[in-house]
Amino acid sequence: MTxxxxxxxxxxxxxxxxxxxxxELFARRGVERVTMRDLAHTIRLTPAAIxxxxxxxxxxxxxxxxxxxxxFSGRLGRLARIADPVERLQELGHAYVxxxxxxxxxxxxxxxTPHPPDAAAVVGAAVAPGQGRPEEDxxxxxxxxxxxxxxxxRFRPEYQNAAQVAQMIWACVHGVVALHIVMGDDPWLTWQSxxxxxxxxxxxxERGLSVTPP
Length: 214
Description:
Blueprint: H1 14-29, H2 36-42, H3 47-53, H4 57-77, H5 85-102, H6 104-112, H7 117-127, H8 138-151, H9 162-183, H10 194-209
Helix pairs in contact: 1-6, 4-7, 5-6, 5-8, 5-9, 5-10, 8-9, 9-10
């Protein structure tokens, strides 16, 4: 059985330290370029100590992605209870940007880090159990919300492809988050509040999509 020992005093468990360091390294350097030896060196453990907690790199990636998607989906999943689909869509956008800005390394790993084919298969296996269930799958919740807007006649007739509309909205909100994560400290730019930017972006999209603009 994989050990879950807690470090002395009040620090995080060794397992948590490994996961946090791996997330940061994967996000910064790419999954393919980080070895278990690199990870061990970063947190001053021996490679053998890493293998006490994770059988191999694939097992580490799987647990990391499962944890991060659980955090992400949990933030958005609670919004499924909002009755009005347009209001729900607005709140999904706000929650998305809040997650990305609050957890930049989580966001980088999930949505901004290319995965080599072997790692991509591991990631797919990690998220498959909740795939398609809106309460566990944030994309499924977005799709269901967009489809409900279409089914209730809230969107104009030219916007009846739920997948296309959902991906358009996702791309717009992702762009705001990604720019702030990658370039938020750029001294040449005066970045506005990402929360306010997304609010205005969602309002603009809603006006363009709606049968009767708000």
